[in-house]
Design brief:
single chain, about 180 residues, mainly alpha, Flavocytochrome C3, Chain A, domain 2, globular, about 45% helix, binds heme C
């Protein structure tokens, strides 16, 4: 009996943590990532369009498009939400109680849900960062939302926004949101 209980306990303790990894929200990341000594990642993100992506769905431009296309209102429409919020981009991932959808496309959209990799000692080690769900980020992070070819006829599909008229070039576009670590810390 005791051994069975012990084995059960061990099995649980050793099981991969996949299902308890959750979204912390970008505010949590900002507790460390707006300190100048490691670089102002939070400030760069705040100033970028990504932090406004949910609000955009409430704009007249979005609402008019929905009415004209006879689809559900954008801020409730899963298709729009999938590319305009972290929560729906990583659909199915649990979230912290204070996660707020209005943060739009937060850090975790590109770097993965952060509850397990957030402690600084884990983040300082690239292998630990990755084994706890962290993603460094590269061109592949952008592709699910930014289509390489612009949308000339403004049709909505799973792959492309009706409002992405321009082609997407990773090298140029990443420069607009670049937020490196300060190596002199
Ligand atoms: C407790 C403080 C703290 C929190 C909270 C935190 N970070 Fe970090 N993070 C750090 C530190 C410190 C480093 C730099 C480590 C170094 O100098 O190599 C880092 C590094 C990183 C890196 C680079 C990893 C690498 O291996 O190159 C990424 C990406 C990152 N953090 C993203 C995030 C995201 C996204 C969140 C929120 C989900 C977050 N961090 C929350 C402290 C934190
Ligand atoms: C496949 C991902 C994707 C889907 C689906 C999507 N969007 Fe977008 N949306 C984007 C991207 C990426 C941009 C930025 C395009 C750019 O600037 O090149 C964008 C930009 C926009 C803009 C332009 C913001 C501005 O002021 O210039 C609006 C408005 C918008 N989206 C509304 C919507 C609405 C409404 C829906 C659903 C009917 C929707 N989007 C569905 C990815 C998506
Ligand atoms: C739109 C996607 C995206 C968002 C949103 C985003 N990042 Fe990044 N981040 C990247 C990419 C891509 C890189 C570059 C990785 C590389 O080239 O090494 C990067 C790099 C970093 C690095 C630097 C790693 C290094 O070695 O210099 C840190 C730290 C980081 N991000 C933290 C954050 C934090 C904190 C947030 C939110 C406040 C955030 N990121 C939001 C995509 C993103
Ligand atoms: C989850 C979907 C998503 C991901 C992932 C994503 N983006 Fe975006 N991006 C958007 C949306 C939506 C907008 C437009 C937001 C708005 O205007 O409201 C946008 C806007 C931008 C803009 C601003 C365009 C402008 O001219 O103002 C840049 C630059 C950009 N993204 C770069 C990137 C890069 C680089 C990556 C990958 C490292 C990336 N994005 C990943 C959805 C995404």
């Amino acid at each position: 009996m005791f051994i069975a209980a012990l084995l059960y306990f061990l099995k649980n303790a050793l099981e991969p943590k996949a299902e308890i990894i959750h979204l912390t929200g970008s505010g949590k990341c900002g507790e460390c990532h707006q300190l100048r000594n490691i670089g102002d990642q939070q400030v760069v993100w705040k100033r970028s369009r990504h932090s406004e992506a949910y609000q955009t769905l409430l704009s007249a431009k979005s609402v008019d498009f929905a009415i004209k296309s006879n689809i559900e209102e954008p801020a409730k429409n899963r298709l729009c939400l999938k590319c305009h919020t972290t929560e729906f981009h990583l659909e199915g991932t649990p979230k912290a109680i204070d996660y707020d959808i209005r943060e739009g496309i937060g850090c975790e959209s590109c770097h993965g849900a952060g509850s397990e990799y957030s402690p600084a000692w884990i983040m300082k080690n690239e292998d630990l960062f990755k084994s706890n769900g962290g993603i460094k980020g590269d061109e592949n992070s952008c592709k699910p939302c930014h289509s390489a070819k612009g949308n000339k006829d403004q049709k909505l599909t799973e792959e492309i926004c009706p409002f992405q008229t321009e082609d997407f070039d990773y090298k140029t576009e990443f420069q607009k949101i670049i937020h490196p670590l300060n190596k002199q810390q």
